[in-house]
Structures are given as structure tokens and as C-alpha cells.
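Re: that backbone. C-alpha cells:
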């Protein structure tokens, strides 16, 4: 953006221009500023909340309440679930307390039937 030419700038009145040039900041009066805090303190807010709560309790009309029946639901498991859990418990208990001494010793025989040379020759020929 180009700067405007002097002829394009707005004209300032001669009186205003002379006042601006002769302005002295030392001629100003000093003034003190005061901060006025109009906000309530935290204690005032707390007291007001307590007062509102107490007035709400005092003015409560208990005749507006309705009677309600409490329905208790039986959350106990049925017979099948109990039986299933008991059988699982017995199974795990049997594994934990198994007597290893009652087992018989067994010998393991490894059988790896490799084909004979004749069988290999037959497969190659086929």
C-alpha cells in the first residue's frame, strides 16, 4: 500500500494544530485512582447459599409427597446356576487334591515306522 500524498491528507484546523503543538503534559492535574470492589466475598456467597437452603427446607410442603411402594427383586441365582457352580468347584477341587501316588508307572515306546529301501524305490518308480 502506497503512502498518500500530502495533498490527499485531511486538513487540520489551524487552532487545533496550534493547541496540539503547545500541549504540555506537565500542565495536567494529578489524580489518584480508587478501586471499588462491588463483588461479594466468598464468605458472603456461602452465607447466602446456606440461607437459601434453610428457607427451602422450612417452606417445604410435605403434603405434596406421594406414597411409593418399594419392590425388592430377588437377585439370588436359580437352582441350575448353583448346581453348575458346585460342579465346577468340585472339578477344580478334585484336580488340586489329586493323589499322584495312585498312578501306575508306564513305559513309553516310540514307534517311528520309516519306509524300507524297497518301498522308497517303488515310490520313485511310480
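Recovered sequence:
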Amino acid at each position: 500500500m502506497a503512502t498518500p500524498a500530502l495533498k490527499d491528507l485531511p486538513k487540520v484546523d489551524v487552532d487545533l494544530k496550534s493547541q496540539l503543538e503547545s500541549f504540555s503534559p506537565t500542565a495536567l492535574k494529578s489524580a489518584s485512582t480508587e478501586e471499588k470492589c462491588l463483588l461479594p466475598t466468598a464468605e458472603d456467597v456461602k452465607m447466602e447459599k446456606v440461607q437459601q437452603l434453610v428457607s427451602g427446607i422450612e417452606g417445604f410442603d410435605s403434603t405434596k409427597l406421594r406414597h411409593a411402594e418399594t419392590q425388592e427383586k430377588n437377585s439370588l441365582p436359580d437352582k441350575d446356576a448353583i448346581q453348575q457352580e458346585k460342579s465346577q468347584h468340585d472339578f477344580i477341587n478334585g484336580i488340586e487334591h489329586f493323589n499322584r501316588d495312585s498312578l501306575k508307572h508306564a513305559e513309553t515306546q516310540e514307534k517311528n515306522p520309516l519306509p524300507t529301501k524297497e518301498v522308497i524305490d517303488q515310490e520313485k518308480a511310480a
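Residues 79-96 form the longest helix (18 residues). The radius of gyration is 51 Å.
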